[in-house]
Amino acid sequence: MTDLYEALAIIASPAGLPLLTVGVFAGILVGAAPGLTSTIAIGLLIPFTFTVSKYAAFSLLLGIYCGSMYGGAIPAVVMNLPGTPTAAVTAIDGYAMARAGRGAQALSISVIASVLGGLISCIFLIGLSLPLASLAIAFAAPEYFALCLFALAVVFSMASSSILKGIVATGFGLLISTVGIDPVSPYPRFTFGIPELMIGIPEVAATIGLFCVAEALRLISEPGRSDMIKDSVRSTLADAIADAKRFWRTILHSSLIGTVIGILPGTGAMMASLIAYGEAKRWSRSPETFGKGNPEGVAASEAANNAVTGGALVPMLTLGIPGDVNTLMLLGAMLIHGLIPGPALFRDEGTLVYVIFLTMILANILILILGLKFAPWIARAGQVNKRYTIPVILILAITGPAISEGHIYYFWISIVFGVIGYVMDRAGFSVMAAAMGIVLGPIIERNLRASLMLPDAGLWTFMGRPVCALFLALSVLVVVLGLWRELSQRRAKASTQPAAG
Amino acid sequence: MTVFLAAIALAMSVGAFVLAADFPHLSADPGGLALFPRIVAAVTGVASVLVIAQTLWARHAAGVATAHGPIRPAAWVREHKDQILLFGLVFLLPIGIETIGFNAAVFIFTYLTMLVLRTKAFTAIVASVAITAAIYIAYAVLLQAVLPAGSLFS
After folding, report:
1. Which domain holds residue B76?
2. Of B5, B33, B142, the CB nearest to A187
3. Tell me, what's the ipTM?
4. The whole model's pTM is what?
């Protein structure tokens, strides 16, 4: 209980709430700016959190995370220009509503669905994290090894269009993670006599390069367009409450989908939005109106993508396995602040855990206030020309890790991984899978080798332990399901091609 | 592009597999230093070969190789001029920071990037000054970081 009171005092301190408000507002702005994603915002901000306390750092980062997830909906509705990729599903019905003169209702639904989705996921975050962390104490090296393997299997099976490409991308990340001094014995691996490589490939600089630098390079070729709706799109709290009452079933259903998908490693908000939209259409009384301005479509997409925020934090906080790209970045921030996610975090950093829980709840409440009040203004302010955003993203992403670590080596890591991320994305290799490989690589290797150091170690070390065997079986199942899905898609594509030709 | 990247991954895997053979083996560590990289290299290598085979087979089946003519380098460069220029600027940024210092390099990088993105010269200068100043305040004042002065001036 002391931890909770301390966390409340931190949040209620003169700097606590304003910092969170700044984070949420900045997040909504970033989300509303097409091309700028929550990942970029978190990645660019991480170096700036080095000098502040861990509580302030996570208030700011989580505020940005939640805010940007909602922010993408504003230009999606007003301009048919999703601020973030996840808001693309919202644009389908949201923009159709706005064109039909119901823009205010679309924005009101998007804000209330986002807030409720976020809050429902917070309930699961709090309800699942505490028991899961206690359960994870019983995990030994073989269980952690199997769990990480499961996380990678989910990532390369679901975050990639082709399983083989997913395996190559993950393998690339894992191989990169082996560069540097060996984690068990002080022997350099794959350093080729270059002293800088002794410290290995820094995860934060590499992931910032893979996502932020690559995204800026990709933005160059993206056309800028805007079909802004000129009608008034201001909505009120009363409208939002009325919408919540009308669409509570869709919001609840989609929030549950978003939370579950958030918990699965490497899946992310885009998949949650798509599945929730499909499910809402399937259960709707008027499925034919989806795509033509059905408010349920907006509610489903927004509730699901915001529910991912709480869900994705569950495996990250309790097991150190990121649920999506944003939590991958947050994991990097935790490591920089000397925090090790997992049961030890709940034991040693109880106050921080409660600060995270309270921040998530407050961030969603702030989204409601800021979203209703400033949505029309944010829609205009978010339209910053890419001529200004591209150089700023590139400079901050390239110099940020180097300036905070004080070594020129980090400049090159961000640049090289930026180019790698750009090329991988163009060729259809999952960048997320590579990043997960880089982050999880050292954990997998350490636990594999620790497992093999156990007495009478062998195959039975993994198969003879129930939790370990369960994760390994789940890994196989996920890969088989992924293969089945890919083959079905190929067959369907092949069967339509002769008809088209 | 897919075949090219898969070939790089294959080369990386073969290299890692071969180099790992020289890693020392400790009796207290049955897995050893080489175990993990070798497992990963083997799996990645096999997957890379399959990706190459799959892509080439798909191309053969779709007749892409015959449908499209050879890629004309000049046309490709013209089409991707902005990207190529920006890639060059990105690689020059750290060299510039080391040579002429952080602020000057950031200003020049921002100005040239904006010109590549077709911003008017005067607007680019004003925006570059503002962006450089904002980044300087963020790093030097907020983070209290020591920014490189550049080998030419220090």
Report:
1. 72-154
2. B33
3. 0.90
4. 0.82
